[in-house]
Each structure stands twice: as C-alpha cells, then as structure tokens.
Write a structure and sequence with these properties.
Layout: E1 6-7, E2 15-19, E3 22-24, E4 28-30, E5 32-35, E6 40-41, E7 46-48, E8 50-52, E9 57-58, E10 63-64, H1 91-97, E11 110-112, E12 117-118, E13 123-124, E14 129-130, E15 135-136, E16 141-142, E17 150-153, E18 158-162, H2 166-175, H3 189-193, H4 195-207, E19 218-222, E20 225-228
Parallel strand pairs: 1-3, 2-5, 3-6, 4-7, 5-8, 6-9, 7-10, 8-11, 9-12, 10-13, 11-14, 12-15, 13-16, 15-17
Antiparallel strand pairs: 2-19, 17-18, 19-20
C-alpha cells in the first residue's frame, strides 16, 4: 500500500497505534489506543483505552470510554478511586490519595469494530464492544454492547433495527472485507453502491484467491515521537 497519510495531534503521554491512512482532528486520546486504516475521529472527541477498527466514521464531540465514577463509596469524587485527574500536581490532593492509585493500567478496554459509524456527541461507556458495521445515532448514550450491523440510538441507547437482513449480515461478517486492499479489487460504482453486488464481486474474488491483504504503513505515536510498527490487523 503506497499511501502514507496520518494526521494525529501530538499530546502529552500519548500511546496510539495508527494505520495509514487515518486522521483525528483535535481528538484527545488517553491510555493505550489504536486506530485502523481509513478511520477518522472528529474534533472535540475524547477516546480512552480503546481499539478502533478500520473504516470507522466517528463524528465530533464523541466520548468513548470516559472515566466511570463508582457510586458505592463515601464519595463519587476522584479521591475515592484510581484517578488524580486535574489534581496530579496538587500536594494537598496527593496527601489525601497517597501513592499509585488502584486499577492503574488495568482499566477495561473498549472495542469499536470495523465499519462503525458513531454520530456526533455520543457517549460510549467504558469496556463495551461495538460490533462491526454498527451505527450509533447522534447524542446516544451507549451502556451495553452493540451487535454487528445493529443501529442504536437514544438515552440510554436502544436497538432501532439492523442495517441488513440476517443473511446479508452473515455474508458481510464472513467476508471481512476490511482486511483486503480494495484498491486492487476493481470495484465499479454499482458494486460500491449496492451491497449485494459488492458481496457477489468480493466473494468471487475471495473464492478465486484474488484478494490481496491490506498492508498499511503503521506508526506508534508515543509522547512526542513516532516509530514504525506492524499493522494492527496483519
């Protein structure tokens, strides 16, 4: 794959693996995260301890895996759990909470599959799985796992419908088209615009051994430096 296009805003304590091409405009990444090829994250979004697949469309103002505050302790404030938040440099705060906090490095990960569309200002609770091909409506608050190709919306988010019938979902899931280099498939407009024609073409190519795996340039962004690494989905 010749394309080498990655736009990532450098930030303190960044640990982000990105396949090319991908972009995130003024998105705040926290913890260890990954972003697959052809995915983009809109401005004002915040992503923490999350793996994002390929071909994902994430709009502005999205919060993925935000901090969860326990409700069963004497306070919901940061002093009761594993987060110093904005008080890391406060001597008084550190005298209260002491040394390294609980759950450091053991936070549950959130997984966003391939071909996922997340609408503006949505919130995805920490530790969830958003299945391949799913759609999260704008402003939704997602508190449970979302099935592949399921459309959800609302507060708290509920199932609206599936994008396709069961047979089509099964064919798309089995094909795993995001693993292949579509630039070498010779897809016509009709095959990109109609899912059944796309499936027929890609399944034929796969059966004939004519699909090439996508091998994108991949970088690890860590603090103020970057280095080449292996693709996330080899």
């Amino acid at each position: 794959m010749d394309d080498y296009f990655i736009k990532i805003q450098q930030q303190k304590a960044l640990h982000l693996v990105v396949e090319s091409p991908a972009t995130s405009a003024n998105c705040r990444f926290k913890g260890k995260c990954s972003l697959g090829a052809f995915s983009y994250v809109g401005a004002g979004s915040a992503v923490s301890n999350t793996d994002i697949g390929r071909y994902c469309s994430i709009a502005t103002g999205v919060q993925i895996s935000p901090t969860s505050h326990p409700t069963d302790r004497f306070t919901t404030h940061l002093i009761a759990f594993a987060n110093k938040g904005p008080f890391g440099e406060s001597a008084e705060f550190n005298r209260i909470v002491g040394g390294p906090r609980l759950n450091n490095g053991k936070l549950p990960r959130t997984v966003v599959g391939h071909d996922v569309w997340i609408g503006a200002n949505s919130i995805i609770k920490r530790g969830l799985s958003i299945g391949h091909g799913a759609i999260v409506g704008a402003g939704a608050v997602v508190t449970r796992d979302v099935a592949p190709y399921e459309i959800v919306g609302g507060v708290a988010a509920k199932r609206i419908r599936s994008r396709f019938d069961e047979e089509t979902v099964n064919r798309l899931s089995a094909l795993e088209w995001w693993l292949y280099d579509l630039s070498r498939c010779g897809l016509a407009d009709a095959e990109r615009e109609h899912v059944q024609r796309f499936l027929d073409k890609m399944e034929t190519l796969k059966a004939n051994g004519a699909l090439c795996r996508l091998s994108p340039h991949t970088l690890l962004f860590k603090d103020d430096a970057s280095e080449p690494v292996q693709p996330i989905y080899p």
